[in-house]
Specification:
globular; 2,3-Dihydroxybiphenyl 1,2-Dioxygenase, domain 1; 137 residues; alpha+beta; 2 helices; eight-stranded mixed β-sheet
C-alpha cells in the first residue's frame, strides 16, 4: 500500500450519521467500527464510531470518528490531516519531522487495533495523525 494523505474529521456523537451522509453525497464504500468492538468504551459509548472510512470511486478518502470519551470536542478545529499506510520507514520519517518543534499528544506506538499510531500538532499548529498499518501480504 502506498501512503495516503486525507482529512480525518471528529464528530460530537453523530459520526455514523455524518459518514452515511457523505456516502450519499460522494458514493463509495463505507466501513464503520465502534468503540465497543474494541472494548475501548463503557456501555454508554459502545455504539459510537471509533473509526469510519469512506472510499469513493473518484479516489477520495474521508475518515471520521466520534470524539473519544474524556476528550473535548471543539467545533471548528475538528479536522486533522491523516497520514496512513504500511511503509513504516517512510511514515516514521514523516512523523519525526512533523513532530520536531511541535506538540505530541499521542506518542507513535502500537495501539489496541494493532497498528502504530501517533498524533500531535506541528510547529505551525496544524494537527496531524500518523497510522502505520501492517503490510498486506
Amino acid at each position: 500500500m502506498v501512503s495516503r494523505l486525507n482529512p480525518y474529521i471528529s464528530f460530537d456523537g453523530n459520526a455514523r450519521q455524518a459518514m452515511e451522509f457523505y456516502r450519499l453525497v460522494f458514493g463509495g464504500d463505507l466501513s464503520l467500527t465502534t468503540f465497543g468492538e474494541f472494548g475501548a468504551a463503557g456501555p454508554e459509548d459502545a455504539d459510537k464510531i471509533m473509526h469510519g472510512q469512506l472510499e469513493t470511486a473518484s479516489g477520495y478518502t474521508i475518515m471520521g470518528a466520534d470524539t473519544p470519551p474524556g476528550m473535548a470536542y471543539n467545533r471548528g478545529d475538528n479536522v486533522v490531516v491523516s497520514l496512513s499506510g504500511d511503509d513504516a520507514d517512510e511514515l516514521r520519517g514523516y512523523w519525526e519531522m512533523l513532530s520536531d518543534g511541535g506538540n505530541v499528544s499521542v506518542p507513535l506506538a502500537k495501539q489496541v487495533w494493532g497498528d502504530e499510531y501517533g498524533a500531535g500538532t506541528d510547529r505551525f499548529g496544524v494537527a496531524w495523525m500518523v497510522n502505520i498499518g501492517q503490510p498486506q501480504g
